[in-house]
Amino acid sequence: MAVSVQALVREVMDIRQASEYLGISGDTLYRYASEGFVPAFKLGNRWRFKKTLLDAWMDEKSGVKAAAPVAVMPKQKKPVARAR
């Protein structure tokens, strides 16, 4: 049961992969990246997109609230009675 590498969504995507993932044209995504509308970075002279940042950006734009991290405080130890 071989899985095609192209079928897997990569963490770092190029324009073509990211535009397919977002369902928009490559030209539109290139314009959005150039204008700073979508989270992207340049590697050399080519735009790259991190899947996790795109997912977080889509959640933010669609009004989905991310779960707030829960702070876990360590239990305070009770004082130990002094030995006699």
Structure write-up:
- Helix 1 (15-22) packs across helix 2 (26-35).
- The protein has helices at residues 15-22, 26-35, 51-62, and strands spanning 12-13, 41-43, 46-50.
- It has a three-stranded antiparallel sheet with strand order 1-3-2.
- It is 36% helix and 12% strand.
- The chain is of the alpha+beta class and 84 residues long.
- The protein is built from three helices and three strands.
- The model has no long low-confidence stretch (mean pLDDT 82).
- Strand 2 (41-43) and strand 3 (46-50) form a beta hairpin.
Layout of helices and strands, plus pairs?
Layout: E1 12-13, H1 15-22, H2 26-35, E2 41-43, E3 46-50, H3 51-62
Antiparallel strand pairs: 1-3, 2-3
Helix pairs in contact: 1-2
Overall pLDDT metric: 82
- Along the chain, the helix and strand elements come as EHHEEH
**Strand arrangement, major sheet:** 1-3-2
What's the N-to-C terminus distance?
A: 70 Å
Unreliable stretches (pLDDT < 50, length at least 5) are none
Strand content: 5-15%
| Helicity level | 25-40%
Name the quaternary structure.
single chain
DSSP summary: helix tally: 3
The total beta strand count reads 3
The largest β sheet comes out as: 3 strands, antiparallel
CA-based shape: elongated
What value does the Rg take, in angstroms? 22 Å
Which structural class do you get from the secondary structure elements?
alpha+beta
